Batch of 2 targets.
Target 1
Amino acid sequence: MSQATLILAHGAGAPMDSEFMQGMAERLAARGVSVLRFEFPYMAARRAGGGKRPPNPQAQLLDCWRDVYRQVRGMVEGPLAIGGKSMGGRMASLLVDELGADALVCLGYPFYAAGKPEKPRVAHLAGLQARSLIVQGERDALGNRETVSGYSLAPGITLEWLAAADHDLKPLKASGLTHAQHLQQAAERVAAFLRN
């Protein structure tokens, strides 16, 4: 079976080569997953010396995703999954069915904005057709285990909970677990999910 490829988008605040993104790409590559990263226009502009900019409007983010997917689909054979960290994963989730990607992978999904659990961003997740994996920290400020358990999610979505972890999958020190262990566990789950 040909190797799976995952296009991984960054979150709202950190670029594609942040410590988290770099570490996840390396861990996945070590497990046989090809990872491609890209930057949304606002982040590319920041890198070019444009100062700190907020994310582009959602329509622009989605168009950027469509362009990247089209380019990559033409270059790689075998299964092609899309996903990302936080905002990057949420944008991918809005497009995965439209694009016909083979799977969706979200690392720290922003189920709601910080401090606004009463305004969930989950309506589209109830009807999602794509096979999906969401790796989430149990105490994520944008979607903790207790709140998310009340949502109606499509049957093809698998939720993998990391004990005592936050939005960056970092566990509480008191848990006795380490960030490296959690990133390792996340990478193992993603690789196994993409192999199936």
Target 2
Amino acid sequence: MPDKHTTSSVFAKRLKQARIRSGLTQEQLGISAGIDEFSASARINQYERGKHLPHLVMGQRLARTLHVPTSFLYEEDDLLAALLATAAPLTRARKKILLANAETLTQSASSRTRKPNNP
């Protein structure tokens, strides 16, 4: 069964979300990520329309410029993408707390779904 999202359409959606949230124009984003100023706007536009998918190194530069994890740009699940974007700016200590809380949630959810053993 084919995926309903292609990598390029997910990347396009996430890139545009992050760019708009950052308040950058396509040209500003492209130039900040190291794309030549004469083609910056056109290249970002092609990425946002899903016409082209950048190489990973360019994806990493775009993510760094937008202050999001690279994985955010490729994440299909909207909730997980939001979690990635929310967690990214946290300090390392706060990320550890968030991880511990997520692990607790996972453990409590799995313990509720387990069936008790019959002696």
